[in-house]
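If I may wish for something, please sit down with the protein I am sending here and say whether tokens and residues agree:
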Amino acid sequence: MLERILEPEVMDTEAEAMDYDAMDFQAVNLAFAQRACQLGPSKATVLDAGTGTARIPILLAQLRPAWQITAIDFARSMLAIAKENVIAAGCETQICLEFVDAKQLPYANGSFDGVIANSLCHHLPRPLDFLREVKRVLKPHGFLLIRDLIRPESPEKLADFVTAIGSDYNDQQRKLFADSLHASLTIAEIQDYLQHLGWVGDDGPNLELHLYQSSDRHWTLEKKFQSSTIVQR
């Protein structure tokens, strides 16, 4: 198995943020947003951790007009572009952008109906710290969607994935992708974190939590909103 090599936790230069925002993640982001909508209710308070340039919250706001989304990131350069994107989409009333460390969330226990995170865990030296915070701020009946890259088994497989993204990406963008793959986790490592938290799925105490490989290079951790426990306001 390829050894995990960490990349910088925060992409906080203007050039990195612009390169990231320019990459074509539209199809992947839309699939993620649509899955979040399937897991969550029609009205919800949602935390998007590691929002980057807010492409996913904008899609969610368009798909779920009754969602209030708190979108956080620990890179001010990302948030600067995110603000421009949110304003351009006309989503200022639904999306609140905040400079927050996902490993130390400033929110009370059970603050959110849903927590989502796309491609955040591979940035974190200790993803367990983030997962612990997610468990704390998510309401017991809330929904969860976390998705990230799987670390390839070998340098050759990693190179194949980078080649497969095509020639539309520049050298810096391909390097960002390669570094992300190298810093990613395996499903077994995520399972160990969940067991450490007492928050395991399928055959453990939380049967609603499901961890699975969702593509040739992605893992997904999800939990559906438990509508039977909704309290009428």
